[in-house]
Structure formats: structure tokens, C-alpha cells
Amino acid sequence: MSTPHEQDYRRIAAGGATRFIAGTQIEIVRDVRLVEPPRFAVFDFDGTLSLIREGWQDVMVPLLVEVLRETGTDESDAELTAIVRQFVAELTGKQTIYQMMRLAEEVRARGGTSAEPVVYKHEYHERLMRRIGDRREALRTGAVEPEGMLVPGSIELLTALADRGVELFLASGTDEAYVREEADLLGLTPFFGPRIYGARDDFRTFSKQMVIERILRENNVGGTRLIGFGDGYVEIENVKSAGGTAVAVASDEPGRSGRPDAWKRERLIGIGADVVVPDFREWERLVGYLWGDL
Questions:
Q1: Which of 76, 103, 128, 248 has the greatest CB tally within 10 Å of its CB?
Q2: Of all residues in the chain, what percent carry a pLDDT higher than 90?
Q3: Are 169 and 40 in contact (CB under 8 A)?
Q4: Strand locations in the chain (E)
């Protein structure tokens, strides 16, 4: 098994000319022509299916700026914010701990004494839970229907894949305990069952790559039977490295506009995505294309 360490983003594919399936927002970066239909599908969670944590950057960035301010640096808050936003964006898609590891490096670079990255991660989670606690409670009490906090078309796509015999896996850079709770609140657990995986305090014991390798090894199948869906570069890169088909979800999380987020789109095409969608509203056409029915 290869190392679970998640590599930094690097552009490996040119943008080039793309095309759209007629009358849709489904962008084909490179044509998918599968000899056999997908047997396994791996989904990212936040931003790909769930919108519960939309706006998480507005919690993480101020916390990291606050920690750097405590080093006594003479940099202004505006300067620190720009620095933090840049490396948070660069590391988006990896497990949260990687952003906290970078924070620790930045603290030491300013002459400060850093805490263990996991300490910063726990503080971030505590603050994020305060921000999204109302959303989770609204789902728990039924005040809000899950549809309101799902990427549009998620349930329909999952149902269509399950109906076609695809075994579904969830692999998230968010801590596994939270992923399992929130998948349950959103009504997604029946689709995935026990096949829900997430980050742990010891980041070496989990990665999306490890999940993919296990799927292929235990089922003795090649990567061509695998399809992946995600809005982060890590899962797209991992699926492509395994020989699978990668569908980039360039979701507009705050607006749910049905148009792709330009930053996500460019980033995910650059890491090798085969197809780009803004969400799953056009799930029928997407599934039809992937199965060669169009």
C-alpha cells in the first residue's frame, strides 16, 4: 500500500478545449468510454453532497489569524489574513489537519511556540460547531428538510447509481465522527451503510487513497470499474491515479445557482477531472453519459 500522505496540489493537466452535453451544464473535459460500467463509486462529502459546513472558511481563517497575531508579529491583520487565505485555499481538499500543520509552521517561522496541530484542529471544530449548530439542530428536529442542505440532485443521483448496482463509498477529509453524524442527519446513511470513512486525529491512519486502494484490492478489480465524485482535488487525483473516472463537482455552495464555481472548476480540471458538473440536477443525463446511453 502506498503512503497515506496527501500530496499538495499541482497542476498536471492543461485546460484545453471542452464541450458540453447539449442543453446541459455537464462539461466533458475528456470523453469517457467505459468498456464495463462502474461497479464502485467514491464520494467526497462536504461541498460534494453536504452543504451543512458551507462557509467553514469564515471560521478557520479568523482563528488562524488570531493564532498568528499571538506570536507578536508586526504584520497587520490584513496581511495575515491574506497569507492565511492563500494557504487555506492551497490546502483545501486535504484533511483539516494539514492546514493546522501549516499553521504550526507559520507560528514557528514568526518565532512563536506552536501547539500540536491537532490542538488547533480541535479548536477549529469547536468554533465551527458553534457556527453550524443551528443547521444540525434544524435537521435533527425536522425544522429543515435534508434537501435544503444537500447539493441539488444528490439523492436522485445516489438512488440512480444504487439502482444500477453500484456500491457506494463516502470518504471525507472531515473527521469521521462528524461525517457519520451529518450523513445520518441528511438521510444519506442508507446509501453508504458502513462504508463511510473520514479523518482521524492520527492522520496517517486514513486517506482517500487508502480507501480506494482497499476497494480495488478486496474486490480484485481494476480502477476502470471505479468512479469518483468530488469538489476537492485530492479525491479527483486519487481516482485518476487508480485508473478510474473522475467527476468534478464545482459546486456553488453559498448560492446553489446551478452554475459552476469558477475557482473549483479550473482547479479540478487542472488535476485531471474527466467531467465537470455544478451539481447533480442533471443526474439523468450524467448517468446516461457515463453508462454510454447517450
A1: 248
A2: 87
A3: yes
A4: 19-20, 27-28, 40-43, 167-175, 196-199, 226-230, 245-249, 275-277
Q: Using pLDDT thresholds of 50, 70 and 90, give the confidence band for residue 1.
A: very low
E strand map for 115-201: 167-175, 196-199
What angle (nearest 5°) sits at the alpha carbon of residue 16, between those of residues 10 and 19?
A: 120
| Average confidence score pLDDT of the chain | 94
Residues 5 and 237: beta-carbon distance below 8 Å:
no
Q: How confident is the model at residue 3 (pLDDT cuts 50, 70, 90)?
A: very low
pLDDT of 55 over the 80 cut: yes
**Range 228-232, long-range pairs (CB < 8 A, 24+ positions):** 228/41, 228/42, 228/43, 229/41, 229/42, 229/43, 229/44, 229/48, 230/42, 230/43, 230/44, 230/48, 231/44, 231/47, 231/48, 231/264, 231/268, 232/44, 232/47, 232/48, 232/92, 232/93, 232/94, 232/173
Supply the DSSP symbol for 108: H
Q: Name the DSSP class of 150.
A: B
Grid cell locating 135: 443547521
As a whole number of angstroms, the distance between CA 213 and CA 60 comes to: 31
What SS3 class is residue 27? strand
pTM of the model as a whole = 0.92
Domains along the sequence of the chain with CATH: 19-51+150-290 (3.40.50.1000), 57-141 (no CATH)
Instruction: Tell me what pLDDT residue 169 has.
Output: 96
For position 2, what pLDDT does the model report? 42
Mean pLDDT over 44-57 rounds to: 97
What 3-state DSSP class applies to 41?
strand
Task: Find, among 139, 194, 138, 171, the residue nearest to 49 by Cα.
Answer: 171
